[in-house]
Write a structure and sequence with these properties.
heterodimer; A: alpha+beta; Thiol Ester Dehydrase, Chain A; 4 helices; 6 strands; 24% helix; B: mainly alpha; Non-ribosomal Peptide Synthetase Peptidyl Carrier Protein, Chain A; globular
Chain lengths: 169, 93
């Protein structure tokens, strides 16, 4: 994770297109300026970032399922639970499942576990829409590559204009 | 009114915490009931699940924004229910 850049996902562990699920691994850094304030002498990953990890995993799943022709923005977090502290150095495995792909929105269920223990879960609603800027699409494709998202034969990376816009993240 | 309306009205009442008696077939979801776009996503999700359909919210919004339709056509509940019934019929056809 690079918390200061909101790069929450380290790598993809498993993508199941048929079941519409994604599992990611995300290591909390040992050091970050965030821990200087949250909290002195008792560093904890802020709960809002646990929601962000679940939202980003859900978003990357939604993007992959839409073959990167639509962006997904976080719209709401329902039934959010922060069940225990997450500390520097721990690895959070996040699992997200697309529950419903609606018109202009997607609803997913997500959860995070540390060493098998449930640490957070939520129902995530994403607003989906055409990419508002080509560089954003390029950034997301680059992120997908960085985290090892299986692209199969569906990725938009084959489309010249977008491939050219890829930047290393 | 149809059972479709009862289901939709109950969904709106529960999702938006609106008294059920305030929701009528003539109610405009936005103007009368004060439902915003985010709350309507929750309603759409519940409707999609309840009826096994996919409300075409994006195309409706686009039509309204382009002046090709009015919000009344899609968001007055009796009209919304009629659209839902059409989608249900199309699904089983």
């Amino acid at each position: 994770m690079r918390l200061e850049y909101f790069q929450m996902i380290d790598k993809v562990l498993e993508l199941d297109l048929e079941a519409r699920t994604l599992r990611t691994a995300n290591t909390v850094p040992d050091e970050s300026p965030i821990f200087e304030g949250h909290f002195p002498g008792h560093p904890l990953l802020p709960g809002v970032l646990l929601f962000e990890i679940m939202a980003q995993t859900s978003g990357m799943l939604a993007l992959r399922l839409h073959n990167y022709d639509r962006m997904a923005f976080l719209a709401s977090v329902d039934k959010g639970k922060l069940r225990t502290f997450v500390t520097p150095g721990q690895v959070i495995e996040v699992f997200s499942r697309l529950e419903h792909d609606g018109s202009g929105y997607a609803r997913l269920k997500a959860e995070g576990r540390v060493e098998g223990k449930l640490v957070c879960n939520a129902d995530i609603t994403l607003k989906t829409m055409p990419f508002p800027a080509p560089e954003l699409r390029g950034y997301l494709l680059s992120t997908a590559k960085r985290i090892g998202m299986p692209m199969g034969d569906a990725p938009a990376a084959g489309e010249g204009a977008c491939q050219e816009s890829l930047t290393h993240v | 009114m149809s059972t479709t309306f009862e289901t939709v009205a109950n969904i709106i009442a529960e999702t938006c915490d609106i008294p059920r008696e305030n929701i009528t077939p003539e109610s405009h979801a936005i103007d009368d009931l004060g439902i915003d776009s985010l709350d309507f996503l929750d309603i759409a999700f519940a409707i999609d699940k309840a009826f096994g359909i996919k409300l075409p919210l994006e195309s409706w919004t686009q039509e309204v924004n382009e002046g090709k339709a009015t919000t009344e056509q899609y968001f007055v509940l009796k009209n919304l229910v009629a659209r839902i019934d059409e989608l249900i019929a199309a699904k089983s056809a």
